[in-house]
Design brief:
The strands form three sheets. This protein has a six-stranded mixed β-sheet with strand order 9-14-13-10-11-12, with helices on both faces. The protein has a five-stranded mixed β-sheet with strand order 3-2-1-4-8, sandwiched between helices. Helices cover 42% and strands 21% of the residues. Strand 11 and strand 12 form a beta hairpin. The chain has two domains: 8-109 and 314-333, ATPase, nucleotide binding domain (Nucleotidyltransferase, domain 5, 2-Layer Sandwich), CATH 3.30.420.40; 119-311, Hexokinase, domain 1 (3-Layer(aba) Sandwich), CATH 3.40.367.20. The chain has 13 helices and 14 strands. It has 334 residues and is α/β, with parallel strands linked by helices. Helix 4 packs across helix 6 (196-209), helix 6 (196-209) packs across helix 9 (239-263) and helix 9 (239-263) packs parallel to helix 11 (285-293).
Length: 334
């Protein structure tokens, strides 16, 4: 990657609801992001052009962009947003010579080596093994999953769609929820519950199976968003809202534990995404950790693995900027 000193480097993190754009500094640090609503733009190139026209002071030499969806031949068809992110379209429409497209949680995995203890809130476990794999997951509009594997001093970030794996019940209450959702949907993925829309689904399902939602108020319950439910739980006026967030916390721990087992993630499990951090004390870390470790014969193995809540803002942009810097360094040495 070669560019003159006046060139800009752009990073962008595109979620189902928000699009975050920033210009990366020469040392690989992203600048202050500009946050846009995806619903305000017809497509991604329109939003990208609006950012470049207003904020870029020179040509954009290269861009690293991540989105919430699988990457296929340089294209992301967003999972929870109608946008298409196409590397070739971006290069042609915006005149950017080099464009890198990756999954949003792959970008967060790239950020892990650049986070310090001040950027993390530890949730139990022992000390992380820096040479071992690490896992990343987080709930927002959807559920993102990735991992980081180190080999010969090179960090390799994984790209996948682990948020769509199956979810398992572990109590009679969870079985009740499953029976209702199976009849309604036919399949329950982790993202069905572990996402913003999933919190609303969980609350509505609890109301129905408890017989609390009459036909007259079913539409009112269905209209409640994760934000509304969180507000009710924080106010202490709605026991069902509190139960919803407890169930969310426990199930997130179970899925995080499955990821740790799959990767052998003795390097730790890192929670990103918007929901866990925004919940504050309503995120039940005790239940999370209990379910994380509850893996039968592997409980002692799991007890040693640390979990961390990423508290630093915009880790995906940090990972994207690091990826651009790595590309520049590789180009200089070639």
């Amino acid at each position: 990657m070669r560019a003159d000193a006046a060139s800009s480097y752009l990073v962008a993190d595109i979620g189902g609801t928000h699009a975050r754009f920033a210009l990366a500094q020469a040392d690989g640090t992203p600048g202050t992001p500009v946050v846009m609503q995806t619903c305000d733009f017809a497509d991604f190139p329109q939003a990208l052009s609006a950012f470049i026209d207003k904020h870029a002071k020179g040509p954009v030499a290269a861009a690293a962009i991540c989105g919430a969806g699988p990457v296929s031949d340089g294209v992301i068809a967003m999972t929870n947003c109608p946008w298409i992110i196409d590397r070739r379209q971006i290069a042609a429409a915006c005149g950017i010579a080099e464009v890198e497209i990756i999954n949003d949680f792959t970008a967060i995995a790239h950020a892990l080596p650049h986070l310090g203890l001040a950027d993390l809130d530890r949730i139990g476990g022992g000390e992380a093994d820096p040479a071992a794999p690490a896992g990343v997951l987080g709930a927002g509009t959807g559920l993102g999953v990735s991992g980081l594997i180190s080999k010969n001093e090179t960090a390799i970030a994984l790209s996948g769609e682990g948020g769509h794996v199956g979810l398992s019940p572990a109590s009679d209450r969870e079985l009740e929820i499953f029976r209702h959702l199976l009849a309604e949907r036919g399949r329950i993925s982790a993202e069905t519950i572990l996402s913003g829309p999933g919190i609303a689904t969980l609350y509505r399902t609890l109301a129905i199976i408890d017989g609390a939602a009459s036909r007259a108020d079913e539409h009112k319950t269905a209209a409640l968003t994760a934000e509304h439910i969180t507000q009710r739980a924080a106010a202490g006026t709605d026991a069902r809202a509190v139960e919803t967030l407890d169930l969310f916390s426990g199930w997130l721990g179970a899925v995080a534990g499955d990821l740790a087992l799959t990767l052998g993630a003795k390097g730790g499990i890192y929670l990103a995404g918007g929901i866990a951090g925004r919940l504050g004390p309503l995120f039940n870390k005790t239940l999370f950790r209990q379910r994380f470790e509850a893996k039968g014969r592997f409980e002692s193995y799991m007890a040693a693995i640390p979990c961390y809540l990423i508290t630093r803002d915009n880790p995906a942009l940090i990972g994207l900027a690091a990826l651009l810097r790595q590309s520049r360094d590789t180009a200089k040495s070639s």
